[in-house]
Design brief:
about 220 residues; binds adenosine-5'-triphosphate; six-stranded mixed sheet; 7 helices; single chain; binds magnesium ion; Rossmann fold; four-stranded antiparallel sheet
């Protein structure tokens, strides 16, 4: 089942003599349950692509359809709501809220949506992520690996259709990187969670079912293992 489709995406930054075409005519179809790793040199457009697909930024040309909704046709308020309901994002630098506890950080998307807390799902998530005994801690008191696990919990609490991750292990040592990767693999397998991850780490990329390689704003390789 198709869950995301990008048609003729391009992204131009800057104006006139500073104009820079960061993405050039990207076409992409992603099915439910895929685990995709996007690789490519620095500056090849990986983050730009992820930011467009996740609705954080808007394309200069082209369209993105997620779950049959053209997200570029939504106004900013509708898009915010759509994103909270359908999209989870994990960042390299975690982006946790420092003055909220671990538990509050994870539940934040539900609180913002005024949605009831599904205790079973919450407990399942914190157990799988191995952070059950850290719920009352403040993010800054945790190691990087733990903070990233919390941010995965926050990204998953809403049962997003798609989880986007931009170098989620970019700030972690290899042991914690593998831990985070295995958690993502667990959610991909067990819940058929669609995951799109940008990584510089070839050993992690090799574990993905589908590999997309970018160069100079284009997809130069798209292979299934
Ligand atoms: N806001 C911006 N304004 C102008 N140029 C930008 C902007 N964001 C990105 N770029 C340029 O677009 C190109 C692609 O950037 P992008 O961040 O997508 O690359 P990337 O593949 O994610 O790189 P990295 O591996 O370093 O994260 C780069 O040349 C970058 O300098
Ligand atoms: Mg990047």
């Amino acid at each position: 089942m198709e869950i995301l489709k990008a048609n003729n995406l391009s992204k131009k930054y800057g104006r006139k003599e500073n104009e820079f075409l960061a993405l050039k005519n990207i076409n992409l179809t992603i099915n439910k349950g895929e685990f995709i790793c996007i690789t490519g040199k620095s500056g090849s457009g990986k983050s730009t692509l992820l930011n467009l697909l996740s609705g954080l930024d808007t394309p200069t040309n082209g369209e993105i359809i997620i779950n049959n909704q053209n997200i570029n046709k939504l106004n900013s308020e509708e898009l915010t709501i759509f994103r909270r309901k359908n999209i989870g994002i994990v960042f390299q630098f975690y982006n946790l809220i420092p003055n909220l506890t671990v538990k509050e950080n994870i539940l934040l998307p539900l609180l913002l949506d005024k949605k009831a807390i599904n205790e079973r799902r919450f407990n399942e998530i914190v157990k799988t992520l191995g952070i059950k005994n850290k719920l009352d801690s403040m993010p800054n008191d945790l190691s990087g690996g733990l903070q990233q696990r919390v941010s995965i919990g926050r990204a998953l609490i809403n049962k997003p259709k798609i989880l986007f991750a931009d170098e989620p292990t970019g700030n972690l040592d290899s042991k914690n990187s593998l831990k985070v990767m295995k958690l993502l693999e667990y959610y991909n397998k067990k819940f058929n969670q669609t995951i799109i991850m940008v990584t510089h780490d070839e050993s992690l990329a090799k574990r993905c079912k589908r590999n997309i390689r970018m160069k100079d704003g284009k997809i130069i390789n798209d292979i299934y293992r």
